[in-house]
């Protein structure tokens, strides 16, 4: 399935998303063709191929496959796409070189802290890390690097608040921002983000503020549809900032006594009625709150103590 959402820009989607989460990416048509993000394992290769053919272009015209970051729902079809589009170079943020060399291991250990308990719970579901193989990256990019496509160029912009190496791509030809998971619409519209263990809440807020001030004609998130044009683009970014502040205000209000991060997470989730979908209830629910706790601690608004061999938090 695909949808033309701007001049030469297609949103490409597979029906294999889980728990209501859109499994999608983008195809840019120019002198050279570029793919942004590859979706879950073995799901978007055929939809991308169908889109290229519908645009009356050859698979050999695809020159770039870009990864916005290393999460399982963005890298899953990367190696298969290299087979479908043999002339394409797969490029990724340089800081993710180790992660992409063994994504299953690094994502579980460093990004999501998959404990034995979580592993057992995932075993009864569709494990997002099953069979994630080494990603065969051709080139790496860094913040502010540029990729020429012909009439337009893609500019890489670091957005590490969500996850280390997370990047946005700005197409200067028609001022389109491909924003990866910066606006992931998870778990719901008003609280539409999460932060893994490598991310940073303070950085996330700063980067969202930067995004809110950028002149964007079309905003292209992965996990929502349709893509948003100005002024709707600006309003959804502002909603993200408001949701961010709402989360922190509720954490502070809930700290009437010393509590663990798990207790705070349970309280905030209930009060704000956050509906985490699978597998993010295990991967991101508590970690997002912990990221905020670290930010609030650094700002001197709360303190972390050890009590009965447990870490607890309290307001100053």
Report on this model:
By secondary structure, the protein is of the alpha/beta class. The chain has two domains: 190 residues, Metallo-beta-lactamase, Chain A; 61 residues, Arc Repressor Mutant, subunit A, CATH 1.10.10. The chain has a seven-stranded mixed beta sheet, with helices on one face. Strands 8-9-10-11-12-13 form a six-stranded mixed beta sheet, covered by helices on one side. A hairpin with an 8-residue loop joins β2 and β3. α7 packs antiparallel against α8, α8 crosses α9 and α9 packs across α11. It starts with a strand and ends with a strand.
Q: Can you summarize this structure?
A:
The chain has 316 residues and is α/β, with parallel strands linked by helices. 34% of the residues lie in helices and 22% in strands. The chain has helices at residues 45-54, 72-75, 78-84, 97-101, 103-111, 116-122, 201-212, 232-254, 261-271, 280-283, 285-298, and strands at 2-6, 9-14, 23-28, 33-36, 62-66, 89-93, 139-141, 146-148, 153-158, 167-171, 176-178, 218-220, 228-229, 302-307, 310-315.
């Amino acid at each position: 399935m695909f949808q033309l959402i701007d001049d030469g820009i297609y949103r490409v989607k597979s029906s294999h998303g889980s728990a209501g989460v859109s499994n999608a990416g983008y195809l840019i048509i120019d002198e050279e063709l570029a793919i942004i993000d590859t979706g879950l394992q073995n799901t978007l290769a055929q939809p991308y191929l169908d889109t290229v053919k519908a645009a009356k272009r050859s698979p050999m015209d695809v020159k770039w496959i870009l990864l916005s970051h290393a999460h399982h729902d963005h890298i899953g079809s990367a190696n298969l796409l290299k087979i479908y589009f043999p002339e394409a170079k797969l490029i990724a943020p340089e800081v993710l070189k180790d992660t992409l060399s063994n994504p299953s291991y690094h994502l579980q250990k460093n990004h999501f802290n998959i404990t034995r308990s979580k592993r057992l719970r995932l075993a009864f579901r569709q494990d997002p890390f099953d069979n994630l193989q080494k990603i065969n990256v051709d080139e790496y990019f860094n913040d502010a690097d540029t990729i020429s496509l012909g009439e337009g160029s893609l500019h890489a912009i670091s957005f590490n608040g969500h996850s280390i190496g997370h990047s946005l791509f700005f197409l200067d030809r028609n001022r389109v921002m491909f924003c990866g998971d910066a606006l992931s619409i998870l778990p719901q519209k008003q609280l539409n983000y999460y932060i893994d263990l490598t991310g940073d809440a303070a950085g996330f807020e700063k980067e969202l503020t930067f995004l809110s001030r950028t002149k964007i004609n079309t905003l292209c998130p992965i996990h929502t549809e349709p893509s948003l044009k100005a002024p709707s683009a600006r309003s959804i970014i502002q909603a993200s900032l408001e949701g961010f502040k709402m989360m922190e205000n509720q954490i502070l209000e809930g700290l009437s006594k010393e509590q663990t991060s798990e207790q705070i997470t349970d309280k905030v989730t209930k009060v704000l009625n956050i509906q985490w979908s699978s597998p993010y209830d295990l991967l991101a629910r508590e970690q997002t709150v912990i990221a905020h706790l670290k930010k609030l601690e650094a700002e001197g608004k709360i303190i972390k103590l050890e009590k009965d061999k447990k870490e607890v938090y309290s307001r100053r």
